[in-house]
Write a structure and sequence with these properties.
This protein is an alpha+beta fold. The chain is built from three helices and eleven strands, in the order E-E-E-H-H-E-E-E-E-E-E-E-E-H.
């Protein structure tokens, strides 16, 4: 299973996807997502605290991965936030791709202060914009190694190496207990998607 150390005070951590488990089985803001989703723009990276990140293998389709994670977050946080984490939550899409596909999820966390419900925190889970080179062919070399290449002889890249989990700054520390539990469940859901093709796998 995926392991991580979550730190909400200073440093961040990198989550390595469990590769062994696999063997077991714009408009910049064009809204092409489902109508119940709200297209939003998350805080800029400079205004965020990175809490955790998972490296997503190149063969995983980014659009499908993020859409399934949105559905999982809606079920886990929006529908079950109060009972599982003690906080009401809402889930929205982050849409930053020219073709209209979302590349991330924004979870808003609410609590009562002075008798009024207010937003006390956010959890942002979003693919980064790093380019990752991909190949469709592996051939042996005379030296006994392997060479990766593409049949068409061209270089191919996809966008997004890491699914980065962060929160905006400044942060309300009263959201920390809920955030820690949320991140633990989210990293397990990411690993379930990689291992079984769905974050809703009952195996975790």
């Amino acid at each position: 299973m995926m392991t991580t150390t979550t730190t909400l005070a200073s440093s961040s951590s990198v989550v390595q996807v469990n590769h062994a488990a696999r063997a077991r089985r714009s408009s910049r803001r064009a809204a092409s997502v489902a109508s119940r989703r709200v297209v939003v723009v998350a805080a800029q990276a400079a205004d965020r605290q990175e809490l955790c990140k998972a490296e997503i293998p190149p063969h995983i389709p980014r659009a499908d991965f993020v859409k399934q994670m949105y559905r999982w977050c809606s079920s886990e946080y929006e529908q079950g936030g109060l009972s599982a984490y003690g906080k009401r939550m809402s889930v929205e899409c982050i849409n930053e791709l020219a073709d209209g596909d979302t590349n991330g999820v924004l979870v808003r966390i609410y609590d009562f202060k002075d008798g009024k419900e207010v937003e006390i925190g956010q959890l942002i889970a979003q693919m980064d914009d790093e380019k990752v080179q991909t190949w469709d062919t592996i051939v042996p070399t005379k030296e006994g190694g392997i060479e990766k290449l593409n049949r068409d002889g061209k270089d191919h890249f996809i966008e997004g190496r890491f699914f980065v989990i962060s929160r905006p700054l400044p942060a309300d520390e009263s959201s920390n207990p809920a955030l820690k539990k949320m991140i633990k469940r989210l990293t397990l859901a990411i690993n379930a998607y990689y291992s079984f093709g769905s974050p809703f796998s009952e195996d975790f």
